[in-house]
Amino acid sequence: MKRTGVIVAFFLSTGLGFPQVERLDGFSSTESNAQNELEALFLESVNFSSFKTHLATITRHPHIAGTKANEDVRDYLVEVMEAAGWQTKLYPYDVYLPSDPGRSSVEIVTPERRPLNQQEYILEADTFSRHPQLKKGWNAFSGSGDVTAEVVYTNYGTKADFEKLAAMGIDMKGKLVIARYGQNFRGYKAKFAEQYGAAGLILYTDPEDSGFAKGLVYPDGPYYNESAIQRGSLLTESFTGDPLTPFEPALPVEGKTKINRLDPEDTQLHTIPVTPIPYGEAAKILGQMNGKPVPAGWQGGLPFTYRLEGGPQLTVRLMVDQPIGLVPIFNVVGTLNGSTYPDEWIILGCHYDAWAFGATDPNSGTSMLLTLSEALGQLAREGKGPKRSILIAHWDGEEHGVIGSTEWVEQMKDELGAKAVAYLNFDAGVSGRNIGGAAAPSLKKVMVNAAKKISYPDSSKSVYEVWKGNREEPSLGNLGGGSDHIAFYMHTGIPSLSGGAGGPTLYHTNYDDFYFYEHFSDPSFQMGGTIAQWSGIMALRLANATLIPYDVSRYATDLTMHMANANSSIAEYATDFEGFTATKQALEKLDAVGKETEIKIKDGLEKESLSSGVISRVNGELLRLEKSFLLKEGMPFGDWYKSLYASTDPYSGYASWMLPAIQYEISNKSTSNFEKLDQQYEAAIQQLIKTLERIGSELEND
Fold first, then answer.
1. Are the C-beta atoms of residues 156 and 163 closer than 8 Å to each other?
2. pLDDT for residue 11
3. Which residues contact 428 (CB under 8 A, 6 or more apart)?
4. Is the per-residue pLDDT at 220 higher than 60?
5. Shortest CA distance to 387 belongs to which of 397, 379, 395?
6. Predicted TM-score of the model (pTM)
7. What pLDDT sits at residue 18?
8. What DSSP state is assigned to residue 638?
9. Nearest 5°: phi and psi at 44?
10. 587 and 563 Cβ atoms separated by less than 8 Å
11. How far apart are the C-alpha atoms of 605 and 180, rounded to whole Å?
12. Which has the minimum average pLDDT: 189-203, 227-241, 467-481?
């Protein structure tokens, strides 16, 4: 069902209803009027019913990366994109990963032998749970082994948790450790377990984090039942992407271009066996442990006292035999060529591989992008295509370690550096009804203002108003790890954002299927079209603005805040620290120059007389802004991560590290590199200032 454009046009023409921007960033007043008319047509062109059709089709079968079922999804994506008028291209890679869990088992050996369940129950209500191709719970990139040992409980298995156990004198050498999901990337749980000498790792989702302690469990509610299992990768290299080809694309072995691959023995892959089990089975282990009670904050939601050790009378066997080898994966990238600036790219993306059906993660985002591609394709057929090229990418191999998008960025690095305006990520982008987002400083305003234009379903409010709630402004986060923006933002310096709608999900379980989606995620199936409208407005404004609509004054605001947070953290262990003085002075200048440049951009646009040469040169300078943060030698924790502004937390894998070179120093409670860091950050900010000054000079002299 399409939304009628009459109401939308009325709000646009009268200025009633949703808050409207008089003049859009990057546009003159005249251009803003034309853009608003185009946006009204776009909103009307979004077919809300299309989202449901795509989601039902894509999630018909489980489709793990490297399987025939996933190639069938790939072919469907190509078919839909080409039918919508997009020039579609496949990018194949041969990557090192397990596409099948292989064999595994978990059993209590003593005091009584008891095999433990490793797969979700078949539910009468959910016919998808009977699918014959569903796999038992597994963790990709587990080591292979067969271990019988005593048990140690490690809480969430964070760096701090393992350090606390060691401080309490708990010996983990040769033991099986059991950890609950949460607070860090599962791969780091395995990494720390191996560092402390554990012989194996068992993972589970505690009901305190998602289970009966939260509310009704599946199929009566959206929380984990006693058989639900979170799958997921354990890959924890010091870089992102294929583990055998750091910095280089994992091009097909039989292709024309030959890529040197590492020997798997030279990687940082785990050697201990690791597998997840449901909390109903974890309770059978944890409930028999008789060591000291756990410290405060370590107690979970199961109905007994959690203890640190099981003692010699409780032994558990863990066996994993997981094959890993070169597997073909395929990115699908469609392009609508820009009419005026074809060599400037707006890229939107979501991966399509899943651990099972993937209804919320990731394919709600995939289906939304297909719906968007149809709407934008319709506009292009009517002669209203974008001025800049818009690319929509469907990534493969994300679940195994953000592999497909990373290999594409590494393959296209030079071209992306010259052409990419922004990357917009929508992984699991329509997995509920709660609006959220995170963005680079330059894209936050674009994201927020676009939300003002979109009606929130089943209400009289805009997406912006629902997102904002009772706050003065919507809550906008900072990009961390765990999804396909990483290579764009943290390796190549391309402004990125991630957004959409979320809610409780059965994350990485076999129950993340169409039945769950239609009963708990969005029963009205209105959010898919809504997020397509939101993402489309963002893309069209970035694509059609005469000058790329970055918020150039936001850099100083956000950098000042992050630096203040860093100074506070340092003060906790270095009381005589006086701050990064050179950086502070540079930030004061950046604040003034950013505001001045913003005014010059607005004034220059309003004259409506900018020459094509000035427009080209100013946009070229704008593309350099984010790259001011790129450090050639990379971060101290991994030279693949180049951005001084943001990176993933190398100890948790998910969290965002703002000013990562400084954060690394803080994490080690060190002060030895502060002078060098002050110089590095001051130099990056000075580069930002110079770029802004060149922009201002171009506009003044036109």
1. no
2. 40
3. 350, 360, 361, 362, 364, 365, 500, 502, 505
4. yes
5. 379
6. 0.96
7. 46
8. B
9. -70, -30
10. yes
11. 55
12. 467-481
